[in-house]
Design brief:
about 475 residues; about 0% strand; about 80% helix; mainly alpha
């Protein structure tokens, strides 16, 4: 997209329309899919088929209502989501919002199928459909879209989600995991329990997406390209979380839920501790790497075609300030999974609301002081606040993740990151300062390899645990 459109108004409109669909999705569907995973292990085996069919039906019907409202009031929503847009840009956004409303029911049902495959620990097919299929098709539609005909962008996004859902539904049916049949029971006990868990969890996701929307609203007032530059930087840090920390959470969450549900608290804490250490092991060096190499990474990934030097500079600055909050958001992800597994969705909602309120307040203050840099700085600071709030919530639930062994592992990771960073600073002063593509790649890969070697020399146990776990999964698979 950066190659075809740079940081133009088309990307700004597409970015806002994606945020809109995410918020509409969070408003109704994502709470049900997340609560589904937490509740599934607590339901009798005979009731699980009824639970699935009833949930799919109700979620689909509710999503259709939400989609209809969004379609009808698309003009009002366009003004709400991007008050800085006017004229032809606003008209284009209204059309994009109308098209994007179609994807809401598709994503709703798709999310329940994903949740069902997750609780069965079929992570490969779930991630293949949810990540690989959707992104490949979205990239294809970006390639065929143009400034004269940008409508392929939202249409392609809808088609990508539909194709991914069809593939997953066909797989589920073929493997006889689930065979959907129409069922509508609002008073079903399992659904009532799901509803009580889903509403606060859905609200917490909605609040989190509203946070993204508020950043977009502030960015839209700063001029053309600011919204898309913010989105590119956010995508880079979100991509890392999606392919590393979030995957770990997806794998561990069902096991943690099952362990808490069966009264095996020690086993649940074991998985939580390992998830937290892996999140820290990956997130801290990644954040440091983004801080040092934000310009290099943006140039390698985006700087071509219509994405010029000015766009690259703004995006790299956004990315550099985003990196501060990455470790804290990664740890919050694990902590929220622990709370969700204990059916403390209401507490997650409260924690998220406080964090978002802090973020929006800081946006309003910092944007006046340091301009567009204030948006990522506010997000990072809000992540730190959220981490401390989640830590307090875990303590109240008597879920203690950091004991002596975990603190020692954390210190080993921090020492490895510090030593690697110092070596990087030292070598930058000695060797070539002009960054070509090859030199940038050597520096980035050198940082990663050096960090990995130092953690091995420090005898970091979480590395051995990861390798043993992957090896055992390969043998068993």
């Amino acid at each position: 997209m950066a190659y075809k459109f740079g940081t133009s108004y088309v990307v700004d409109v597409y970015t806002v329309s994606i945020i809109f669909s995410n918020i509409a999705f969070s408003l109704f569907s994502v709470g049900f899919s997340e609560a589904y995973v937490a509740l599934y292990s607590r339901i009798n085996d005979k009731e699980k088929k009824v639970f699935f069919n009833n949930t799919v039906t109700i979620v689909f019907l509710g999503a259709c209502i939400i989609a209809s409202i969004c379609f009808i009031f698309s003009n009002i929503l366009a003004t709400l989501f991007a008050p800085g847009f006017d004229g032809d840009v606003k008209i284009l956004l209204v059309i994009f919002v109308k098209i994007m409303s179609v994807v809401i029911p598709i994503q709703a049902v798709f999310s329940i199928y994903l949740a069902d495959e997750t609780v069965r620990e079929n992570f490969l097919i779930a991630k293949f459909c949810d990540f690989i299929v959707i992104n490949i098709l979205v990239i294809f539609t970006i390639c065929i879209a143009s400034n004269k005909n940008p409508y392929f962008l939202p249409i392609g996004y809808v088609i990508a989600n539909l194709v991914a859902f069809i593939i997953l539904a066909f797989y589920s049916c073929k493997k006889k995991h689930v065979q959907y049949s129409f069922l509508l029971r609002f008073k079903e006990d399992s659904f009532v329990r799901l509803l009580f868990l889903a509403i606060p969890l859905g609200v917490s996701f909605l609040i989190n997406d509203l946070n993204t929307m508020s950043d977009g609203i502030f960015a839209s007032t700063l001029g053309e390209g600011m919204t898309s530059a913010l989105n590119y930087a956010n995508k880079m840090q979100s991509l890392f979380l999606a392919v590393t920390v979030n995957i770990i959470s997806v794998v561990c969450f069902p096991r943690v839920s099952q362990s808490f549900a069966s009264g095996q608290r020690g086993k649940a804490l074991y998985y939580l501790k390992k998830s937290m250490l892996i999140a820290i092991y990956l997130a801290i060096p990644f954040a440091v790497m983004l801080f040092f190499f934000s310009s290099n990474i943006i140039e390698i990934v985006f700087k071509r075609g219509h994405f010029g030097s000015e766009s690259a500079e703004i995006t790299s600055i956004y990315l550099k300030y985003y990196c501060v909050g990455i470790p804290f958001y990664a740890m919050c992800n694990v902590g929220n999974n622990a709370l969700a597994a204990n059916e403390r969705q209401k507490q997650i909602m409260i924690n998220t609301a406080i964090s978002v309120a802090v973020n929006i307040g800081l946006d309003m203050i910092l944007i006046k002081i340091i301009g567009y840099r204030g948006l990522p700085v506010a997000t990072s600071l809000a992540g730190i606040v959220q981490f401390f709030i989640v830590s307090i919530s875990l303590k109240r639930e008597k879920i203690f993740i950091f004991h002596r062994e975990e603190i020692i592992e954390l210190l080993k990771i921090l020492i490895s990151v510090i030593v690697t960073s110092l070596l990087l600073i030292f070598t930058n002063r000695i060797y070539v300062r002009t960054d070509t593509f090859i030199i940038s790649m050597i520096k980035i890969n050198g940082f990663i390899i050096t960090y990995a070697l130092f953690t091995i020399l420090c005898n970091t146990k979480i590395i051995r645990w990861m390798f043993y776990s992957l090896f055992s999964l390969r043998i068993n698979g």
